[in-house]
Recover the amino acids of this structure.
């Protein structure tokens, strides 16, 4: 079992990272389930044609307007029918957010982004990997052990209900990498522990807006039980500074956080609080 690079695992969600307009107001993506950055956020529908926006870090981004040259997203889809912010802008915003988090002390990133097509996902994963490495961190790719090995990732994070064979296959592809597993029950924790995984996330520990369809909150009693199987367990779902302390008290090796670090216009205070929890 390999040591984990950090007690905090940052989970990416590019659709949640807010974008800021030239006037300083926040623009948010219109993907299904993506929360508003704040109650006064504006969407792409509110942006003027060809308006330039910047990420929270000040990185210039482009929101496609309704003019001939600006009306299509990077993958060729027409924003007039999709009403979404340019996927390229979301990618750029995610990269800027990763830079901010690394500068603030984050050292382990799980690239999730499950909704992307394979080719653009691989391209964005490589870009995030390069940022993470440049910032002194470790990069884990979600779901695809073969792609993780191809990219030279530091590890792979396999989905829920992963079989022992899939864990063994990932280990063969990444003999020196971390193999993690998403778990939503004690049974899945037991399977991961028996099959040679290096760690598992258990979720949702608390109610969470980021993953509302994953069933009721398991609570810290279930987390404590999961931690009794000899496998490092990271608590995921509804993690704040206060709940992180409760998770540590229950025996969790660490925490995994997506929503609060991706949605916040300025993630620095949240990151500091989580790192000190």
């Amino acid at each position: 079992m390999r040591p984990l690079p950090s007690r905090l695992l940052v989970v990416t969600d590019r659709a949640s990272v807010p974008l800021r307009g030239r006037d300083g107001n926040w623009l948010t993506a219109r993907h299904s389930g993506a929360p508003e950055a704040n109650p006064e956020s504006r969407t792409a529908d509110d942006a003027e044609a060809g308006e330039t926006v910047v990420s929270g870090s000040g990185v210039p981004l482009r929101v496609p307007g309704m003019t001939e040259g600006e009306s299509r997203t990077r993958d060729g889809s027409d924003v007039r029918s999709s009403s979404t912010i340019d996927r390229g802008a979301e990618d750029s915003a995610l990269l800027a957010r990763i830079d901010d988090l690394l500068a603030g002390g984050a050292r382990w990133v799980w690239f999730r982004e499950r909704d992307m097509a394979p080719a653009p996902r691989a391209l964005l994963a490589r870009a995030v990997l390069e940022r993470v490495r440049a910032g002194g961190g470790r990069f884990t790719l979600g779901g695809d052990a073969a792609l993780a090995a191809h990219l030279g990732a530091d590890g792979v994070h396999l989905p829920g209900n992963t079989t022992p064979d899939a864990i063994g296959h990932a280990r063969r592809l990444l003999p020196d990498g971390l193999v993690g597993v998403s778990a939503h029950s004690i049974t899945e924790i037991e399977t991961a522990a028996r099959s040679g995984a290096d760690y598992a996330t258990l979720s949702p520990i608390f109610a969470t807006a980021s993953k509302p369809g994953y069933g009721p909150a398991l609570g810290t009693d279930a987390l404590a039980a999961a931690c009794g199987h000899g496998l490092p367990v990271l608590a995921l779902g509804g993690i704040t500074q206060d709940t992180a302390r409760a998770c540590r008290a229950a025996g969790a090796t660490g925490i995994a956080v997506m929503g609060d670090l991706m949605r916040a216009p300025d993630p620095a205070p949240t990151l500091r609080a989580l790192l000190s929890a």
